Amino acid sequence: MKSIAKVFAIAAIIGSLAAAAAAQGSANGPGKPVVPVAWQPADEAASVQVTLNRFVAALAAHDVQQLQAVGVDPAELKHWQKFFREVPDARVTDDCPAPALFLSRYGAAIWNCTETTTLGTGRKTTPFVHPIQFRFARRNGDWTVAERK
């Protein structure tokens, strides 16, 4: 008796899935196949951009806790903490053009950027510009900064 109930439950689930697929198919247009929604790089790129923005905001604020929140590892956090303490007027900015973002469908991304570190205040500022690469990883569904070199 229990096995018959299971068969009916499975049939009901299959029926509801088929109805949902048919509804999607009609939304796609008559006679058009139902195409499953796959990995969407535009959405992923936007998510990586959000993580980068959080990293940039943390640098601007000299906030080590925010850097930790975006995934910066403990050794690098100590580096940033020392840097912020020793050079409190330093500004670090990262310019990351959208075409320089490379996404993998396996939860990884690389973004080639240009970092500008400006030391000094007023008219006596010295900018140092050099290329930098971010590696991002998906952890628990969120993008994090895995490495920055």
Descriptive overview:
The protein is α+β, with helices and mostly antiparallel strands and 149 residues long. The chain has 2 domains: 37 residues, no CATH class; 108 residues, Nuclear Transport Factor 2, Chain: A (Roll). 45% of the residues lie in helices and 31% in strands. It has 4 helices and 5 strands, in the order H-H-H-H-E-E-E-E-E. Strands 1, 2, 3, 4 and 5 form a 5-stranded antiparallel β-sheet that branches. The longest helix is centred in the first third of the chain and has 27 residues. The radius of gyration is 24 Å and the shape is globular. The termini are far apart. The N terminus is likely disordered.
The CATH architecture designation of the largest domain is Roll
> What is the tally of helical segments?
4
Count of beta strands: 5
Structural class: alpha+beta
Q: Quote the average pLDDT.
A: 80
Are there runs of 5+ residues with pLDDT below 50, and where?
A: 1-28, 34-39
| CATH class (first level) name of the largest domain | Alpha Beta
Strand content: 25-35%
Q: Please write the string of helix (H) and strand (E) elements.
A: HHHHEEEEE
Report the biggest beta sheet as strand number plus sense, adding barrel if it closes: 5 strands, antiparallel
Straight-line N-to-C gap: 64 Å
Gross morphology is: globular
Q: What's the structural domain tally? A: 2
Rg over alpha carbons: 24 Å
CATH topology of the largest domain: Nuclear Transport Factor 2, Chain: A
Share of helical residues? 40-55%
Output the keywords.
alpha+beta, disordered N terminus, 5 strands, Nuclear Transport Factor 2, Chain: A, 2 domains, 5-stranded antiparallel sheet, 149 residues
